[in-house]
Amino acid sequence: MAIPTAPEPPHPAFLRLPMDFDPRRLADDLSAVDAREWTPHFNTGVYEGDWSGAALRASPDSPLAIYSDPGAETWADTRLLEGCGYFREVLGTFRCPLLSVRLLRLGPGALIKEHRDPMLGLDYGEARLHVVVSTNPGVTCRIDGTEQHWAAGECWYADFNRPHSFANRGETERVHLVLDCKADDWLRQLLAQPH
């Protein structure tokens, strides 16, 4: 007789990862990003105000560099990443395969309405991580009903397949370095560590 196994525990809605980055060096690299690199976010129905992105790693076949195309098979660093030494160093700390990597900026007074990113999560073999580059006390995120403030230099995993929203009620921009990764053994072990 087979012994039944317990179901795998549900994935957390969000989790701060045990890695911190230097906020000053993140800001230095951000200051090197030319204003012409920023593209308005394509998902216009879910936000109000300025939500824009700059691609650091993209699918060469995609007509829109900031789009994290789930069907893409190849990804490559962009020219912009070449000039951002600390961003490259940060990306080098992640020992999982990197897919799309973007800077996502939320301007003062802007908000991303509650929505879900379908087919994105550990159950689908991928994870989205956020490294906070710049923020202010008026920035909040709500994931699966829980509101939080993430500080500069922190790294967070969130299950964006769940309902989520962001708001910038402050007077300065919020910028996150957003990594879409393959959920390999290294990343799954990192997420399973007690925090």
UniProtKB/TrEMBL annotation:
Domain named Aspartyl/asparaginy/proline hydroxylase: residues:
86-182
Q: Which InterPro entries match?
A: Asp/Arg/Pro-Hydrxlase, IPNS-like_sf
Name-wise, this protein is Aspartyl/asparaginyl beta-hydroxylase
Q: Which domain of life is it from?
A: Bacteria
Q: Which Pfam families match?
A: Asp_Arg_Hydrox
